[in-house]
Each structure stands twice: as C-alpha cells, then as structure tokens.
C-alpha cells in the first residue's frame, strides 16, 4: 500500500504540484496581463512539466533528487522571467539561450536595479519558495529510488526523444501542436497582443513552447526564387541620382532617443531636445517606425545596416542572434559592404561589449574595416553610469580630424548614456528641473532621469553638427533613436499607461506612437533632399545610397523603389501608400499589399534563402 501511495505521489501529485506552484507565481506576478485560459494548451503545459520532471528524476536516480533539481531550475527560470518582463515587457523565450554569451553585459545593466526588483516581488517569491519547499519535503517522505537501470535508461531516452522531436523544425509536427493546443486563429491571435498575455492564456511552459513554434522561420506565400531574382535583375538597370556625391557618413545610433517634449504629463524648465527640433529645418527629418519597443536595440541596427526588415520575421526574432550563424552570411547584403565596394573606410564604435547580441560575429559578416568596443576606448568619461554622449561626440570629432581626406568614411557610433535603468539617482547632477507633474513622485523621477539622458544626447547632436560645418569634406550626419525607453516603476507598473500622449483612445495611433522614433539627415554641403515624411530604418540608408555617386547593388536599388508605396512598417503598424497609419495586418490598400508581399519574398531571398545555399 505504501509503495502504491508513493508511486502516485511521485509520478502524479508532485509534478502536478510543481505546475500549480509555477503557474501561481507567474500569474500572480502578472495580474495586469490576465487572459481567459485555453484548456487544451494548459493540458500541454502539464504534460511538459511531467516530461521535464521525469527527465530530471531519471538523470538523478531518485524522485527526491529529481524534485529538488526541477524545483531549482523552475525557480531560476521564473525569477529570470520576471526580471526580463520588468526590463523589456517580454517573458523568457526558449531562444534566449543565445543570450548566455552576453551574460556579463546584462549583469552590468541589471546591477543597479536588481535589489529593487527582488524587493517588489518578495512576497510572491516567499510563497513560491515555501510551496517548492513543501513539495520537496513531500518528495523526501516518499522518496523512490530508481534501481532498475533498464527502466531508467528507457525513461531517460524516451523523455529526451520527445523533447528533441518537439523542438526540431519539423513543419508537420509543429503544425499539429499549433492546431491542436493553441487554437491560433486570426481573431484569437489578434486578441493576444503581447507575449505576456500569451503565456497567461496558454500557461507558462506551454506559452513558451507555443512562442517557440510560432517564431520559426517560414517561407512566405508565393515565394519563387527565379521570380525574385528576375525582379532584382531588372532593378539593377536603374541609375542612381548621384547628387549627394561621395560624402563621409557619420551615423549616431542614439540609445532610446525620443523627444520627451511631446508629452505633457511632466513639464520641464527648458526644452529637452532643442537642437533636435531646430535642426529639422536644416536637413531632412523622417518619422520612423522602429521594429522594437523598450529594448533589443540590435533589431533596429539590423534594419539600418542591412535594409532587411523585421516585419516579415516571427515576433521576437533577433536576426543578429538567430540568423547570422553560418559563413553564408558573409555574402548577405549590408550597407557596410556597399560602401566597402566603393572604397570607403568603415568603422563602428560601440559603447557596449563585443559579446552583446553576437555583434562581434555580425560585424565580421558585414566586413566592417575597424570596430571598437567599450574596452577598446581610452580615457572614457562616464555619466549616469555609462560612457557619456559628450565623450562619443569628441570621439567622432577626433576621428574626423585625423582621417585621410582622400578616403571617404562611414563612421558609426552606438551610445549608451540614455540606457536604462532610469531613476532619480541615476545622475549626480541635473541640467533640467521639473516644473509640473501629474505623475507620482517615482514616475516623475524616472521621467526626469530619462529626460536628462536625452538632453545630453541632444547636446551631442548639436556639437557634432556644429563641428561638421567647420570642415571642407562633404559630410552627411545621420542621427536616430533606436526605440522608445522602457519605463517602469520599481513595483512593475508601466508608466506609459499614465502618459496621455500614448493613450488617445485610438489603438492604431497609440501603437504607432509607441514605435515612432525620428531620424535626422543633416549635411555640410547644401544637399537638396527629396522630402519623405515616413521611412522605416531599413529604408534610411537605401534613400541615401540611391542619391550617391557610387556603384550600387540591385537589391538596394529595388528596395528604394518601395519608399513611396510602403514607406514604413513593423509587425504591428504600417504606413500605406496613402500615407495613412494602419494596422500591418490590415493595410487596406492594394498597392501596399502587393508591395508588402514582394518585400517579404525579396527579404526571404536575401537573408534566408541565399545565405543557406
């Protein structure tokens, strides 16, 4: 009788209790993301936990040790998940394993705010730990050691086999899981607008698996390689405008740059982005739609430096980490290669580590001539815990002062000062003061610290612009923000929910504003610009290259032909050929829909099909 009871406890009750504890922690930590659960996917959630539990139990050789192992892994996973949610509004994904080589950089980012995050979650953590401890005590009381080696090996390899089959990109099997357990229809998929809600609706482990399945690359409908190649061949016959000549190109990737003066909830004693707004009259200002919100800067960088677009990749896909993983990408298109082919000297200066987002390998695939990372920079000055924007302005000026004037240059810097965390203690000294606010004291302090970072980024822009006006070499300055900042209080409340600018009642407009950053294209030799109101990051450099006196590949010539038909988009919101802001899944315009379909096929050809051959 005891053996029968022990078997029931070990093989049924303990894994069920583990899933109850995990779901309690996740759902109670994210009550603002409530969504009616789907029963079938929650059954899969239970099955996944059973599978993992049996795997760890057979590896360790006893139910008690297996329970402890499973409990520790689940606790770490769910805690990391909550930390990631607070920093990025996205849960943990299976593919986040690729972040492991960037662990040091992320630890640095977290160092100042990890304690407040843990403090905000303390009672949930305490209850979860108590639940896990109780489960482990139960497992100890009814510990069952697996002595039969044959049964142990069969269970071990059966569990591993099922896990491998579930994870392999086998379309037939993947589609069965999606159809049977996730009930993915256009209507239901549109209702689940964030991955946090997706996990809430389908269960934590099942949600993670469902996100993994739907994030796999799939060939676009109607893709015909020969047709796509023929379109590019025809585009190769187009002649460049050439009016820009062969200028130096300085690119400032300004971390989290957005104009705080657009919102009215917190007012400051002076304009935050004075140079940014005044210089709109000097060159070309473009409203962009960023592919990301609150983080994953490398996705904006990917679009800017390749012309590839995240619109046609799965949600939460990170090309730098998921795509650039074989030598075939040495031949994939990039702006860097286009400029190298025209005898440019190309340099990227990053204020981050070489391991972040796999950028070291990616820059090698791009064939950047020279790359500097944070550890390569000398005599740095810091502000707000990061390398200061003023230091990076001087870095640009120093390079330009010492470069060979006979060789045109592409010089890109990636800033860090305006990166999270945001809190009133971030800066020792402020140049701005709050004059009025209807937000809480903490929210006001967070917005003030962000605004100080933007104030300094704006001064950097002014400093570099003023400098290029003093030199004779024709030079273009490209300044843009990668995404809006992620603004949350210490207890996890989203500050955007309280900012009127992002809550107009028009869902499409509100979504656009969350992803809308600006790009300034400036110069020192009186360029005449073709005015464009909107462009996504993937069209900014094709716009410039198609006006330069250089040899240009057919891909970038073709890409520029789309600028007036489908000028800007991401997964959620687009600008159609009429200049209207519309949901991406409802373009409401035949010309835009046709252009979008062809863009998805060309995107697949250049960044998936060709590199894999």
Written account of the structure:
This protein is of the alpha/beta class. The protein has two domains: 2-214, no CATH class; 245-612, Alkaline Phosphatase, subunit A (3-Layer(aba) Sandwich). The chain is built from 23 helices and 14 strands. A hairpin with a 2-residue loop joins strand 6 and strand 7. The chain is globular. The chain starts with a helix and ends with a helix.
β-sheet strand percentage = 5-15%
Count the beta strands: 14
**Uncertain spans:** 184-193
Stated plainly, the CATH topology of the largest domain is called Alkaline Phosphatase, subunit A
Going by helix content, strand content and strand pairing, the class is: alpha/beta
Residue share in helix: 40-55%
| Main sheet attributes: strand count, strand direction, barrel closure | 7 strands, mixed
Average pLDDT for all residues: 88
Shape: globular
What is the rounded Rg?
26 Å
The CATH architecture term of the largest domain is: 3-Layer(aba) Sandwich
Distance between the termini: 62 Å
Strand neighbour order, sheet with most strands = 3-11-10-1-8-4-5
Query: What is the domain total for the residues?
Result: 2
The tally of helices reads 23
CATH superfamily of the largest domain: Alkaline Phosphatase, subunit A
CATH class placement of the largest domain: Alpha Beta
């Amino acid at each position: 009788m005891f053996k029968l009871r022990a078997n029931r406890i070990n093989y049924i009750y303990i894994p069920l209790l583990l899933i109850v504890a995990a779901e309690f922690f996740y759902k109670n930590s994210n009550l603002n993301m409530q969504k009616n659960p789907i029963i079938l996917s929650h059954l899969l959630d239970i099955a996944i936990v059973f599978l993992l539990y049996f795997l760890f139990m057979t590896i360790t050789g006893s139910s008690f040790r297996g329970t402890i192992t499973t409990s520790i892994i689940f606790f770490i996973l769910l805690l990391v998940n909550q930390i990631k949610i607070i920093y990025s509004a996205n849960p943990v994904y299976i593919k986040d394993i690729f972040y492991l080589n960037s662990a040091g950089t992320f630890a640095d980012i977290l160092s100042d705010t990890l304690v407040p995050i843990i403090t905000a979650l303390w009672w949930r953590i305490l209850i979860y730990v108590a639940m896990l401890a109780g489960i482990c005590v139960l497992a100890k009381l009814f510990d069952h050691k697996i002595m039969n080696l044959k049964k142990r090996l069969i269970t071990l390899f059966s569990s591993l086999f099922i896990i491998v089959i579930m994870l392999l990109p086998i379309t037939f099997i993947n589609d069965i899981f999606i159809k049977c357990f996730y009930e993915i229809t256009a209507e239901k998929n549109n209702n689940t607008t964030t991955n946090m809600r997706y996990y809430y609706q389908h269960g934590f482990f099942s949600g993670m698996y469902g996100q993994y399945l739907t994030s796999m690359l799939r060939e676009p409908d109607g893709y015909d390689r020969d047709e796509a190649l023929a379109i590019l061949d025809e585009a190769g016959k187009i002649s460049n405008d050439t009016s820009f000549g062969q200028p130096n190109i300085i690119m400032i990737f300004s971390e989290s740059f957005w104009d705080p003066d657009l919102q009215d909830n917190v007012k400051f004693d002076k304009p935050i982005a004075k140079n940014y707004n005044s210089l709109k009259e000097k060159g070309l200002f473009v409203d962009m739609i960023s592919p990301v919100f609150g983080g994953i800067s490398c996705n904006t960088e990917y679009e800017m430096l390749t012309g590839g677009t995240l619109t046609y990749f799965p949600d939460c896909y990170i090309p730098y980490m998921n795509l650039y993983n074989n030598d075939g990408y040495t031949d994939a298109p990039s702006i860097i290669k286009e400029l190298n082919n025209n005898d440019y000297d190309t340099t990227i200066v990053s204020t981050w580590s070489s391991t972040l987002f796999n950028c070291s390998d990616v820059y090698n695939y791009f064939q950047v001539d020279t790359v500097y990372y944070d550890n390569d920079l000398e005599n740095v000055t810091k502000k707000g815990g990061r390398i200061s924007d003023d230091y990076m302005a001087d870095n640009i000026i120093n390079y330009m002062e010492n470069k060979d004037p006979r060789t045109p240059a592409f010089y890109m810097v990636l800033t860090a000062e305006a990166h999270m965390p945001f809190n009133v203690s971030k800066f020792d000294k402020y140049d701005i003061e709050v004059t009025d606010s209807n937000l809480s004291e903490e929210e006001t302090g967070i917005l003030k610290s962000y605004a100080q970072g933007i104030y300094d980024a704006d001064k950097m822009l002014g400093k570099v612009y003023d400098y290029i006006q003093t030199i004779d070499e024709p030079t273009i300055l490209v300044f843009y923000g990668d995404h809006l900042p992620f603004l949350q209080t210490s207890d996890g409340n989203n500050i955007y929910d309280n900012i009127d600018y992002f809550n107009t009642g028009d869902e499409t407009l509100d979504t656009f504003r969350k992803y809308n950053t600006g790009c300034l294209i400036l110069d020192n030799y009186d360029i005449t610009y073709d005015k464009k109101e909107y462009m996504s990051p993937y069209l900014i450099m094709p716009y410039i290259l198609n006006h330069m006196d250089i040899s240009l590949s057919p891909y970038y010539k073709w890409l520029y032909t789309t600028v007036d038909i489908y000028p800007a988009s991401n997964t959620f919101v687009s600008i159609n050929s009429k200049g209207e802001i519309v949901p991406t899944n409802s373009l409401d315009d035949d010309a835009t829909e046709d252009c979008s379909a062809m863009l998805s096929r060309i995107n697949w050809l250049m960044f998936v099909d060709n590199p894999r051959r």
